[in-house]
Amino acid sequence: MQNYQLHVITNTLFIIALIFFSNVSFAKGLNSEALKALINDKTVESESARGFAAKTYYSPDGSFRKTKRDESIKGSWYIDSDGKLCKKVEGESTASCRLIVKKGDVWIVYKVPGKPTKPWVHKSTWLKILDGNPDNL
C-alpha cells in the first residue's frame, strides 16, 4: 500500500510541476473559433522542430495542401472541440491533433500526449500566416 501511495504522490507532484514549470501554458492555447479565424483560407509558413521549412494552405473546404523538402502532402483538417488543430493526411487512417500556443511573435505547435505524465512535444513553429494561397499550393 505504501508503494502505491508513493506512486500516486510522485505522479501528482510531477503533474503539478509540469503545469507550473513547463514552457507550455495551458491557458494560452486557442479556442476552436479563434484557431479557425487564424488559419481558415490562410497559408502558414513554418519550421519543424528539426529545422525543415514548410508551407501549408488551409482551405475553407476543410482540405489542406503542404509542401516541405520537395514533397507535396494533401489531406483534410478540422478543429476539435478542445481547440486543437487536427489533420488527416491522404492515405492515412487517423488524424493527428496539435495544440497551437502563441509565444511572442510566433505560434508553437505541440503534440499533446495521451497521458499527462508524458511530455509535450514541440513539433513546429509557425513563423508567418499569409492571407489566401499566394503560392498556389
Relevant terms:
137 residues; alpha+beta; Lipocalin; 8-stranded antiparallel barrel; 42% strand; globular
Describe the model.
The protein has 137 residues and is α+β, with helices and mostly antiparallel strands. The protein has one domain (24-131): Lipocalin (Beta Barrel), CATH 2.40.128. The protein has two helices and eight strands; from the N terminus they run ααββββββββ. An eight-stranded antiparallel β-barrel has the order 1-2-3-4-5-6-7-8. β4 and β5 (85-89) form a beta hairpin. It is globular and about 40 Å long. Mean pLDDT is 83; it is low at 6-27.
Secondary structure topology:
Elements: H1 2-21, H2 32-39, E1 42-48, E2 53-58, E3 63-68, E4 71-79, E5 85-89, E6 96-103, E7 106-111, E8 121-131
Antiparallel strand pairs: 1-2, 1-8, 2-3, 3-4, 4-5, 5-6, 6-7, 7-8
- Sum up the overall morphology in one term: globular
Uncertain runs with pLDDT below 50, 5 residues or more?
Answer: 6-27
Largest sheet: 8 strands, antiparallel, barrel
For the record, the CATH class is Mainly Beta
Helix-strand topology string: HHEEEEEEEE
Give the rounded overall mean pLDDT: 83
Name the CATH architecture.
Beta Barrel
What class would the helix/strand composition place it in? alpha+beta
- Based on DSSP secondary structure assignment, what is the total number of beta strands? 8
What's the alpha carbon Rg, rounded to whole Å? Answer: 17 Å
Strand order of the largest sheet: 1-2-3-4-5-6-7-8
Q: What's the structural domain tally?
A: 1
Provide a brief overview of the structure.
20% of the residues lie in helices and 42% in strands. It is α+β, with helices and mostly antiparallel strands. The protein has a single domain (24-131), classed as Lipocalin.
